[in-house]
């Protein structure tokens, strides 16, 4: 590329993707051109617009903020250690009280039986005809099967269960 072509090329070709990726899962503070400050863990970065998506784990609920790239004035990395952002969003079954898990298990089993699925229990795992299993906390993310059609059908069905 000539100097003239480089000067007029889009900034996405000038960005260093390794540097952008190094910010993911790091705690940062971002100051915008209008004087506002945002802090949180970098969830992802759009390399074209240089927009940052920050997860704020300090709230009871997850709070995501999108800071547009054109508005960013300054960014400071607070910690060099990585925080796995997905762990902030996923709730583990250890965090769910046993009574709620058991109520959900019973509700899922009853719903499946109402819809004429042959449900059996193997310890704390619900099995359907030996081709699908549902593990605690018995939601659609904890279904596993090699048959994609059955898997999608059961996931759609148990997604309606509210305990």
From TrEMBL:
Which Gene3D superfamilies did the record assign? 2.30.30.100
Q: Which organism is it from?
A: Neodiprion lecontei
GO:BP terms for this protein?
Answer: spliceosomal complex assembly; spliceosomal snRNP assembly
Q: What is this protein called?
A: Gem-associated protein 6
* GO CC, alphabetical: nucleus; SMN complex
* InterPro entries membership: AD (IPR047574), Gemin6 (IPR009422), Gemin6_C (IPR046856), Gemin6_Sm-like_dom (IPR046857), LSM_dom_sf (IPR010920)
Q: Where is the AD domain?
A: 70-163
Q: Which PANTHER family match?
A: GEM-ASSOCIATED PROTEIN 6 (PTHR14710)
């Amino acid at each position: 590329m000539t100097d003239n072509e480089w000067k007029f090329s889009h900034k996405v070709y000038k960005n260093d993707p390794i540097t952008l990726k190094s910010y993911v899962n790091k705690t940062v503070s971002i100051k915008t051109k209008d004087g506002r400050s945002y802090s949180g863990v970098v969830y992802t970065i759009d390399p074209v617009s240089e927009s940052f998506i920050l997860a704020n784990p300090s709230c009871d609920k997850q709070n995501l903020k999108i800071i547009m790239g054109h508005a960013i004035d300054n960014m400071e990395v607070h910690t060099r250690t990585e925080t796995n952002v997905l762990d902030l969003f996923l709730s583990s079954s250890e965090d769910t009280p046993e009574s709620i898990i058991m109520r959900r298990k019973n509700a899922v089993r009853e719903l499946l039986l109402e819809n004429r699925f042959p449900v059996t229990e193997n310890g704390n795992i619900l099995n359907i005809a030996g081709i699908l299993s549902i593990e605690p906390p018995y939601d659609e993310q904890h279904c596993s099967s090699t048959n994609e059609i059955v898997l999608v059908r059961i996931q759609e069905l148990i997604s309606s269960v509210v305990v």
